[in-house]
Specification:
The complex is a heterodimer of chains A (about 120) and B (about 110).
Chain A lengths: L2 E5 L2 E3 L5 E8 L8 E6 L5 E7 L6 E3 L7 E6 L4 E6 L8 E8 L8 E4 L3 E5 L2
Parallel strand pairs in A: 2-11
Antiparallel strand pairs in A: 1-3, 3-8, 4-5, 4-9, 5-6, 7-8, 9-10, 9-11
Chain B lengths: L3 E4 L2 E3 L6 E11 L4 E6 L6 E5 L3 E2 L7 E14 L9 E7 L5 E3 L3 E4 L1
Parallel strand pairs in B: 2-10
Antiparallel strand pairs in B: 1-3, 3-7, 4-5, 4-8, 5-6, 8-9, 8-10
The chains are: A mainly beta (about 120), B mainly beta (about 110).
Chain lengths: ~120, ~110
Amino acid sequence: EVQLVESGGGLVKPGGSLRLSCAASGFTFSSYSLIWVRQAPGKGLEWLSSISGSSNYIYYADSVKGRFTISRDNAKNSLYLQMNSLRAEDTAVYYCARVGGDSYGYCFENWGQGTLVTVSS
Amino acid sequence: EIVLTQSPGTLSLSPGERATLSCRASQSISSSYLAWYQQKPGQAPRLLIYGASSRATGIPDRFSGSGSGTDFTLTISRLEPEDFAVYYCQQYGGSPLWTFGQGTKVEI
């Protein structure tokens, strides 16, 4: 069974930093691209960043480019999101998800339960 | 940027009724790269449909997807109590790489 478990969320002051982790199990981790998506309170879903299995291809949404860094450790079956220069508008639940391949239209097949990040003074 | 617009914003129906949800793209997209998700309060989204019309593993056949070009539809043939949720469409391949619609809430 595919499992994705996020951790690392919490309360941080504006301008601060936080590192999110996503622990994966139940599949060959290095074979899949992974992504981060967030959802602000009462709002919709926003894709933030993606990373290929070998970390060769990394993409960011404009809203986080230059502030957030995605990475992965295939030996530890873990995905990370380093978030710097946090703003109040970054307050959201952050989800990691596994990306299906081309035959699945690069949809987000499996999701973690999410971790809440609150940016407030 | 490809914008996905979902309608209606809220759909008020009763169990047993048919639900028809629309997702319109600002420019033509490949149906291979159109997906639908269901999200219940306090839960992560769940993949329902990929490739515009293929059901994900374990999804009941009362859920179906259709469409092409700029117009896509998610249909729930007979609403069950557990189907009341928010539904999102999503596309891959534009700029940004992935975008979501704003969601349609199906409520009793």
